[in-house]
């Protein structure tokens, strides 16, 4: 399945996004730091033809403009402009990491626009240090030398964000921008998480180095209409068949609430058949 690439302008920036085309229902997908919209292409394929997937290259990522500012309000304003550009009255928001916080913070400010939330491996508090990515800056003579600098742990997840220019191979994002963005992402976002009551699915990786089981359990207990699912893997989960199955089941439950909660529990022996991601 191919998604059309389109763009819009906002706050002096050009934003690129992928659109899977007309469908009965709409889902906006928001990637994490260091990634981009194309990471959701397999999910778009799996959810067709019932769901229109709109995957945004967020500011400083992918084919969208680099920006002078990466505050929380910047990201929320970008989403408001995206909804306005698309003339959407409502959508499900799916966010991975950075995109997850952006999703639930946007919902807290514009609850009438958000039908449901799917949050991939991020909590209500963020404190991660990503200063190690500073070493990835610059241009490299080959793609392989750049990925070697990134290292085997992260190379599979940023390989789609590698670009070639006359000066050499480089990343689509500027590591310095990402450090600024992360500094604004870090903090306590409990008030935003608890501000809404629309259906929400929290998905955590059992080996995640970013989220803590007890915090996601509290997020589920304290917020109505919230389900927690733990999948084998690390911080990035949306490349797994089990993630797609969980999302499809959750989306189906929005049309038929009677089928919702029990179907999210995977059999214990499923974990051995799911490829593990350790990022």
Task: Summarize the structure in short.
By secondary structure, this protein is an alpha/beta fold. It is 31% helix and 23% strand.
Question: What do these coordinates show?
Answer:
By secondary structure, the protein is α/β, with parallel strands linked by helices. It has one domain: Alpha/Beta hydrolase fold, catalytic domain (Rossmann fold), CATH 3.40.50.1820. Helix content is 31%, strand content 23%. The protein contains nine helices and twelve strands. The strands form three sheets. The chain has an eight-stranded mixed β-sheet with strand order 1-2-4-3-5-6-11-12, with helices on both faces. Strands 7-10 form a two-stranded antiparallel ribbon. A hairpin with a 2-residue loop joins strand 1 and strand 2.
Key features of this structure:
Rossmann fold, 8-stranded mixed β-sheet, 279 residues, disordered C terminus, globular, alpha/beta, two-stranded antiparallel ribbon, 23% strand, 9 helices
Write the layout of secondary structure elements.
Blueprint: E1 4-10, E2 13-19, E3 25-30, H1 41-47, E4 51-56, H2 72-86, E5 91-96, H3 98-109, E6 114-120, E7 125-126, H4 143-150, H5 155-158, E8 162-165, E9 168-171, H6 175-185, E10 187-188, H7 190-193, E11 200-205, H8 213-222, E12 226-231, H9 241-255
Helix pairs in contact: 2-3
